[in-house]
Write a structure and sequence with these properties.
The protein is α+β, with helices and mostly antiparallel strands and about 140 residues long. It folds into 2 domains: about 1-30, no CATH class; about 60-130, Ybab, Chain: A. The protein has 2 helices and 7 strands, in the order ββββαβββα. It has helices spanning about 40-65, 100-130; strands spanning about 5-10, 10-15, 20-25, 25-30, 65-70, 75-80, 85-90. The strands form 3 sheets. A 3-stranded antiparallel sheet has the order 5-6-7. It starts with a strand and ends in a 13-residue tail after the last helix.
Length: about 140
Amino acid sequence: MAGALRYPIRGRYISGSKTFLKKSCGALRRRPRIKMTTDFQQILQMGQQVQARVSQLQSELGQRTVSSSSGGGMVTVTADGRGKIRSVSIDPSVVDRADVEMLEDLVLAAVNEAQARAAALYEEEMRKLSGGLPLPFNFPGL
């Protein structure tokens, strides 16, 4: 038998085809070969689908807005879903040349809160996108 394949089973070889044989309870039985089901084209397609969904999510987040206020509504900041500040509204009664520090603090607090809300919105949308599973990597540009 030239070219026949031989497989070791408990110290001896058995000739056969590409099907593995296993000795169990004194009898030989066939064990199917393990097929490699990982298809790299499918993995690439899945990656492209995720990338498309992330791009769509980025554009949607750019159009959604979150708002935050400080000082009882005297300073209001609006940011988009990516955290970029879109507008700042200051009540004229807060503007006082003698107390600029208070105004700075109010603006800073409102900006920080708006950006925190935008980050929470982003994380929530990414959790929906990934099916609740934490993604092991960061997407560039997000």
